[in-house]
Structure formats: C-alpha cells, structure tokens
Amino acid sequence: MAIAADEPVGRQLTECRRVPVDLELIAEEDTDALEREGMGAMRQRRVARLARQARIQGGLLAVEDLAHLTCTSPTTVKRDLAELRRRGVAVATRAHLPPTGAAVPTRVQAVRLYLADVALPEIEHHTGGAVRVRDALAEFAQVATLFAQGMSVSAIPESAAIGSDLASDYLAVYERTRRRHPPPCRLAELVDPGAARNDPQH
Description:
Layout: E1 2-4, E2 18-19, H1 28-37, H2 39-56, E3 59-60, H3 63-69, H4 74-86, H5 106-115, H6 120-127, H7 130-148, H8 156-160, H9 164-178, H10 185-191
Helix pairs in contact: 1-2, 2-4, 2-9, 3-4, 5-6, 5-7, 5-9, 7-9
C-alpha cells in the first residue's frame, strides 16, 4: 500500500488514504547493478524503481515505506535519495514531489489506458494525439518483447533507443499486466511478435 498521490501535503501519514500498488521488489537490474557497481548502487536503483512504480499506480511511498521495502534505515534511504537527485534522477516520494518527472509520463499513461481496453479516441483525448499514442505503444511493445526474449534490463534502453527511466516504467506496466488472470488480449497483440501490433485500431 502507498499513500494516495492526491493526499494534501502536510497531512499526517496515519490520516492519509492509501492505495494498493504492485511493486517489483527484486528485478534483474538489481543483480546487474550489484555485480557492476556494488550494494549501494543496487539499493539506489531499487529505491528509484519502487518509487516510480508506486507513482505510476497513483501512489507515493514515504521514506519509511522505502526503508521497510529495502530492509534498511530511513537515514540510509534519505542518503540514497539525495545521491539520486544529485545525479539528476527525479524520485517522487511523499516528502518530495519533483516539479519535473513527478507526473506519470504521458506515454506510460497511454499504454496503461490501451491495456485497460480504452478506445484510441479516448486515449488520444487524454494524451494529445494519435501519433503520440501509437509511438508509445510501439515503444512499449519493443521494450516488453525484448524483455520477454531474455534481454537484460540494463541493455534494453540502448537497444530500444529510449531513456532508462521510461524503459523501467514500461517494464513495470508489462510485469503488472502480464500477471493478471487472464492477461489482457491487447497485451498479447502488442508483445507477441507474430501478432499485428504496429498499428492498433481498437
């Protein structure tokens, strides 16, 4: 559970409404970071990923939440957050909602709406144009397919020619969606290389 993103700033955490979120506690990128950069880097990547995944689902994690999820102390999480922000990584938490990067990316919103069977005209109304929606779906399809084919998480952004944060957001949506029972038909249409997924019409 995460604190609802629309809860007023300053309200006591115990009084805040919480929303269910599906978080990826362990990911392949964690192992990559551990092997290449060490424990601290792995933990920082995990903190950033968990915060992004919660934000995508309409929630914000408190420092205490992140400490619990990463089995560390609030002080350590605060240091990690400071280091991430020093490097230009926007991490939205209950205590800190960056002016940029805080909102759910439009492309991720478009993918989520499409996978929820929302019609393209309605998605276009919310996201500002059919071309952008189709671009987002194509990006998502490429990222998810590469992941499904076994490519490492760290290699996907370069292969797909997109930023690592956006790739992580797409993968979070993919992982959450594919675990539904049954998975949405539209997911198979987008990710299955044998399906007609280049120009969604529904």
